[in-house]
Amino acid sequence: MIEAICIDATNKPNDIPNSKWLVEGETYHIIYTTTVLPQRQLAFHLAEISLDESCYPYEYFLSTRFAIMEEDIESLEQLIKDCDIADLNVGELMKEINLTRLT
Question: For the chain, how many structural domains are there in total?
């Protein structure tokens, strides 16, 4: 699992209940990555929140809603390679990642 800090909890879709939505500033754990189509954007499945049938058509959270610690970036890149079946360029997907540093 890779830690991710929510940096954008705005624009919650009406189809997702508040109990299954992100809290800005909270830390979550990425357990799976995918590329959502047709947008071709990187998205995450989190350990703490499962977007089930009640949230349809939403299944994942866009990566742009999170910041990843610099020390976790290589692990995230490997997870993307291991999970993503869309055969998109991992380097292009990694450009979507927001980095954060411990202060």
Answer: 1
